[in-house]
């Protein structure tokens, strides 16, 4: 009888998951890259930051203590935060920021998710150095839907600035110009030997022949989508944004800021007598300037011990071939290969019918130059802006979720346009008037509404890809295409069988993407471009999802230590 009790207790513990405690101290740390030493904002003096590891079903409690002069928040990117919107992290959306010498406890349970996600600061451009991986292991006694790898490795792409990124965006918003671009891209914090003064700052991945490695790829870059390839090797894509995919093989891939991609790397059966570069560089189609450089790491095979081997320094170095900078065709082809497993264990619960349809344009625009000032934006007579349905979103001064929960008026409005107020030829010749409207406008959705959202890129100030991230949800990508979306022909090609499920997806340059989701998570949820320059310019909006009737369908009350503005 006692044995049965212990078995039951063990089963209950497995079902309920553990509670995992972390402490994140946000503090200054001097870091030298490219022969420039700079005081960088970090968590626990690590760049990139520490790993957060949990299992599906675990409760995670992170105490964040702010030791720096800047206000800060942390976002757990891709974690669903079911009914725990207070722990989502975007400043002035779900919380006021954590002020200097203050702390806040993020408390959430990881429900129905397993795979690679990540955490990052979510205020201004602080995420440029405040970021790290979230690794969610399957429940105990559960396995991957692919053969267990011999080893797992996290690879985070980032951006390095020789000067203070906060000063860069602050100046750009003041002058209306495009901000200065980064000085390097990084792999796990290291730029690699193609940059000045950086041969020692190179990430090396040491592997053994005949083994399988699970690489957890995360694009934490601030403003750039990246191509990635490992010379003379292919990888098998098995997951995107912590959702398993039907496996497919590729020798190169593209990953937008905010996205994660898990791939299996099978190493060569014998020692290859060579080193192989792993390279990442931007995908860019816009009109502005960008950091046109390449970060590389080295894939290094372990020498067999019985071999009189050459020093690894004398080995041939093989370089990968990456797509051209503006290879939009490759990007569309690659993203089109992602499909959910769509089986009984991992179903694709895509809405088959839709309660509410939305059509959002996303792209750039302008704000007029204030009187008696000069601006350095388009035509030197305006300021750069960005918008959704021509509304450039202004952050409020108190959090939207607080205003929603406590019924405070005057913080935001609920009149966000469901379609463009003035239709135009979105991907053709841009209109003469490119000015945006400014406001803090949101869309309100009743609980469990089935939503279809088509996002259309515009050619205003240049067609470019916009990686849109929706907080609090995964969504299904049911269709994508180039040109202007046709509401009659588009849906005929929608995939409602095994569409890919993600939290971040690129709206194609000069094209559109259609997504569907059930609004089953009450709260205030940010949706924004994950190119931070576009977010700063206003390419962002908020969804307010109302409580449902059931006890587990209501936003939980705010925690007692919720920061005040």
From TrEMBL:
Q: Which superkingdom heads the taxonomic lineage of this protein's source?
A: Eukaryota
Q: What family name appears in the similarity comment?
A: Belongs to the multicopper oxidase family.
UniProt KW Nucleotidyltransferase keyword: no
| Swiss-Prot/TrEMBL GO biological process terms | lignin catabolic process
Which intervals hold domain Plastocyanin-like?
26-140, 152-303, 417-547
| PANTHER family, per database record | LACCASE, MULTI-COPPER OXIDASE
* The protein's Enzyme Commission number: 1.10.3.2
Q: How is the cofactor bound?
A: Binds 4 Cu cations per monomer.
Give the originating organism.
Gossypium tomentosum
Q: What does this gene product do?
A: Lignin degradation and detoxification of lignin-derived products.
Recorded hits in InterPro entries, A to Z, give:
Cu-oxidase-like_N, Cu-oxidase_2nd, Cu-oxidase_C, Cu-oxidase_fam, Cu_oxidase_CS, Cu_oxidase_Cu_BS, Cupredoxin, CuRO_1_LCC
| GO CC entries | apoplast
Cell location: Secreted, Extracellular space, Apoplast
Q: What Pfam family is a match, any one?
A: Cu-oxidase_3
Reactions catalysed: 4 hydroquinone + O2 = 4 benzosemiquinone + 2 H2O
**Which residues constitute the signal peptide according to the record?**
1-17
Primary localization: secreted
Read off the NCBIfam families from this record.
Answer: laccase
Q: Which cofactor does it need?
A: Cu cation
> What's the name of the protein?
Laccase
GO MF, any single term: copper ion binding
Q: Which UniProt keywords apply?
A: Apoplast, Copper, Glycoprotein, Lignin degradation, Metal-binding, Oxidoreductase, Repeat, Secreted, Signal
């Amino acid at each position: 009888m006692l044995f049965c009790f212990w078995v039951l207790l063990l089963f209950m513990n497995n079902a309920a998951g553990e509670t995992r405690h972390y402490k994140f101290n946000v503090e200054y740390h001097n870091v030298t890259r490219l022969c420039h030493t700079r005081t960088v904002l970090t968590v626990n003096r690590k760049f990139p930051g520490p790993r957060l590891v949990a299992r599906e079903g675990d409760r995670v409690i992170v105490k964040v203590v702010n030791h720096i002069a800047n206000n800060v928040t942390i976002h757990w990117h891709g974690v669903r935060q079911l009914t725990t919107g207070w722990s989502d992290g975007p400043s002035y959306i779900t919380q006021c920021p954590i002020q200097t010498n203050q702390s806040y406890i993020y408390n959430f349970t990881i429900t129905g998710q397993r795979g690679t996600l990540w955490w990052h600061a979510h205020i201004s451009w602080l995420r440029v150095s405040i970021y790290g991986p979230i690794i969610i292991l399957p429940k105990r006694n559960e396995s991957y839907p692919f053969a267990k790898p011999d080893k797992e490795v996290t690879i985070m792409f980032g951006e390095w600035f020789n000067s203070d990124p906060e000063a860069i965006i602050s100046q750009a918003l003041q002058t209306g110009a495009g901000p200065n671009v980064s000085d390097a891209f990084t792999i796990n914090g290291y730029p690699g030997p193609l940059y000045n003064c950086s041969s020692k700052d190179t990430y090396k991945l040491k592997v053994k022949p005949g083994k399988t490695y699970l690489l957890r790829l995360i694009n934490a870059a601030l403003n750039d989508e990246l191509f990635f390839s490992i010379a003379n090797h292919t990888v098998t894509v098995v997951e995107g944004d912590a959702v398993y995919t039907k496996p497919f093989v590729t020798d190169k891939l593209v990953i937008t800021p905010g996205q994660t991609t898990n791939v299996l790397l099978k190493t060569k059966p014998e020692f290859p007598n060579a080193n192989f570069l792993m390279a990442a560089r931007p995908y860019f189609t816009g009109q502005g300037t960008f950091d046109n450089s390449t970060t590389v790491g080295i894939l290094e095979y372990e020498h067999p011990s019985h071999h009189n081997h050459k020093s690894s320094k004398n080995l041939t170095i093989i370089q990968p071939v990456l797509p051209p900078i503006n290879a939009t065709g490759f990007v569309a082809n690659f993203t089109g290969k992602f499909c959910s497993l769509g089986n009984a264990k991992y179903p694709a619960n895509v809405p088959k019918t839709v309660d509410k349809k939305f059509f959002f344009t996303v792209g750039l625009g302008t704000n007029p130059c204030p009187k008696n000032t000069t601006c350095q934006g388009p035509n030197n007579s305006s300021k750069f802006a960005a918008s959704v349905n021509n509304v450039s979103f202004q952050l409020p001064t108190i959090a939207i979720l607080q205003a929603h929960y406590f019924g405070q008026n005057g913080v935001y409005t609920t009149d966000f346009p469901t379609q463009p107020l003035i239709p135009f030829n979105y991907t053709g010749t841009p209109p003469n008037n490119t000015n945006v409207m400014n406001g803090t406008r949101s869309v309100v959705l009743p609980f469990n509404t089935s939503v279809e959202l088509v996002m259309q890129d515009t050619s205003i100030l240049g067609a470019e890809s916009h990686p849109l991230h929706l907080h609090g949800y995964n969504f299904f990508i049911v269709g994508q295409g180039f040109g202007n979306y046709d509401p009659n022909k588009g849906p005929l090609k929608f995939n409602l069988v095994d569409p890919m499920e993600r939290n971040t997806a690129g709206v194609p340059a000069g094209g559109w993407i259609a997504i569907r989701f059930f609004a089953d998570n009450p709260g205030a949820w940010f949706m924004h471009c994950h190119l931070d320059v576009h977010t700063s310019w206003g390419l962002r909006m908020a969804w307010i999802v109302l409580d449902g009737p059931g006890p587990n369908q209501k936003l939980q009350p705010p925690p007692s230590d919720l920061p005040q503005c």
